[in-house]
Amino acid sequence: MKDAFRLSLIICVFLFASLSNAQNHKQTPAANEAIFKVHGIVCSFCSVGLQKKLFQLPSIDPSKYKKGVHVEIEKQKVTIALKPDAKLNVKAAYEAIKSGGYEPINVTIIGKNGAITIYNADGELCTATY
Hints:
Number of helices: 3
CATH class: Alpha Beta
Oligomer: single chain
């Protein structure tokens, strides 16, 4: 009986730690960010390669995240921080993603004034709000 209680306690502690860690890394979109939905990111090695490719874009703000790029493998999501007043070259960003062997699905760009712009996988404007 004591062993079952200890095992239950260990499992509860582990689950609580996992949930706390997940909540600490929970990210909400912020101004001057672009959030890409990308298929094919399966490991941390993939994410490092993708970070290196996207970091080379001139509009990236390296002061946020790790060199301006945050990859969420489980969600197949890549967030990049943009320099203030910088305009993201969506097609160049998609090419950087494709050159790593990944498939860009879409990108949502949040402007400094909260405007949201969404581009499809071909880099074509889908929606914009102001």
